[in-house]
Amino acid sequence: MLAVGSEVLLDEHFASEEVGAGSGAGAGEVVSAHLSGCSVVLVRRRRGEVHNEEVGDCVGWDVSQVESFFCSDRIDIMFGKEDRLWEDAEVRSLLVGRLETRTLQESGLKSVDETLKMLDCKEMQKHIAALEMEIAAARSQGFMLKRPAVDNTTANGGRLHAVIGVYTGFGNRLRRDSIRKTWMPTGEQLKKLEVEKGIVIRFVVGRSANKGDSSDRLIDEENNKTKDFLILESHVEGENELSRKTKTFISTAVELWDADFYMKVDDDVFVNVEILGAMLASHWDKPRVYVGCMKSGEVFSEPNQRWYEPEWWKFGDEKSYFRHAAGQIYGLSRALAQYIAINSAILHEYSNEDVTVGSWMIGLEVDHVDERRLCCASSVDGLCEKWKYIGEACIAVLDSDCGGLCDSANRMSDVKAKCS
Question: How far apart are CA 290 and CA 356, in angstroms?
Fold first, then answer.
């Protein structure tokens, strides 16, 4: 509270204007204002001389009139010994409060209430910052807020072991049938594999550009009989859409099934599911695993080349790809799959799917597992026997020249007999 005789300069705009009805001639600069008894007195300077000018009686003034007269926080009120404040307690409280606020502001001091509010704000800011760091850390580990949309526990109540998505197309019915006859169970056996072993297998396909046409109808009819498809309703099948299909598949699979691993397989590859499950189990202790037949190689910059990459210039003057898993079959641990699902909207897509997935991994703390049993070649005589000789077996069999198995619809049974 201000002591008697305290003084604060009038606001500049107040000091330069005439005040009140009783200002008389009013010429000259208003230097200060004070109370004399209960009259409001302005002190003006005219031509170097100081004059006191009574401008009105304050008796009966309400708060709004006082506030209008002393129209800013910068008020000059000079209290002489004979001067007194208005009898109205509300008016007196208003003036004292305004003067104390201005004094604290000019001295750099803060009231107790203001200090407490400031401390509360700082504590809240620290708490928010800590929560933001925790959220960022959780996201980096692949944490998702969405709950799985279907039952996805094994017989013993544990999390699923693996989700295997077999990429297929509209015209590949013969390939799918050859897989159903060899390494992918059907009907009740498919469900039994999910419940007892924690392994889900689905053919993965999108929709036709002409949604609802014969291609879509044939897939729907097949799925009604076999119940073994994951149909990506939001994805349109296309020759150069594999990278986008992978984004959609992983995001959808993560939402539907909570599993330790997510695998992608082409529909012309033979897979030994039991050995695949055992191999994946050996990497349970690693938080972020990217497994496949790791490779590198030339970046093709000519449009007429088979694996042409339109963004070839991004890979440097040597035009060589970074290490990545071959696209016929590869797997991602839960955290990496969830990372892709969370960030799918901002992950870049290259022309080739395997390069695209490898690029998503390149900036993360990831264990790149080069598992050569995922790319056994059927054309090499005795290769499967060689793996068996050393106590292991091929996990996946394909032909690099054909991408997957050459003539897979007719040869899948022979490969199974040789390599499983």
Answer: 13
Of residues 298 and 277, the one with the higher pLDDT is 277
**Strands annotated E in 12-79:** 29-36, 39-46, 49-57, 77-78
The residues, any chain, with a CB within 8 Å of residue 91's CB and separated by 6 or more, are: 61, 62, 63, 66, 85
pLDDT beyond 70 at 197: yes
Query: C-alpha distances in angstroms, 252 versus 199, 286, 288, 344?
Result: 16, 23, 19, 11
How far apart, in whole angstroms, are the C-alpha atoms of residue 23 and residue 16? 13
**What pLDDT is stored for residue 4 in this prediction?**
36
Asked if 226 and 126 count as a contact pair (C-beta separation under 8 A), the reply is: no
The dihedral over CA atoms of 77, 81, 82, 83, expressed in degrees to the nearest 10, equals 20
Picking from 101-115, 222-236, 244-258, which range would have the lowest pLDDT averaged per residue?
Answer: 101-115
Q: Compute how many other C-beta atoms are within 10 angstroms of the C-beta atom of residue 407.
A: 10
DSSP 260-295: EEEEEEETT-EE-HHHHHHHHHTTTT-SSEEEEEEE
Is 9:76 a contact under the CB 8 Å cutoff? yes
pLDDT band at 16 (very low <50, low <70, confident <90, very high): very low
Closest CA to 275 of 202, 343, 329, 221: 329
Q: CB of 371 within 8 A of CB of 329? A: no
Longest CA pairwise span in the chain (Å): 118
Residues whose CB is less than 8 angstroms from the CB of residue 122 and which lie 6 or more positions away in sequence, other chains included: none
Give dist(CA 340, CA 332) in Å, integer. 10
Write down the residue that tokens 């082409």 correspond to: 266
94-143 pLDDT, tens digit each: 666 666 666 656 555 556 667 777 777 777 777 787 777 777 666 655 55
**Cα angle, residue 363 at apex, residues 361 and 365 outer, rounded to 5°:** 75
List the domains of the chain with CATH numbers. Answer: 12-107 (no CATH), 160-419 (3.90.550.10)
pTM for this model (two decimals): 0.63
Q: Quick one: tokens of 360?
A: 């998503």
What CA–CA distance (Å, rounded) separates 327 from 254? 20
Structure tokens at 19: 């005040």
**Between residues 325 and 145, which one has the greater pLDDT?**
325
* pLDDT at residue 73 tops 60: no
What the block records as the tokens of 372 is: 């050569």
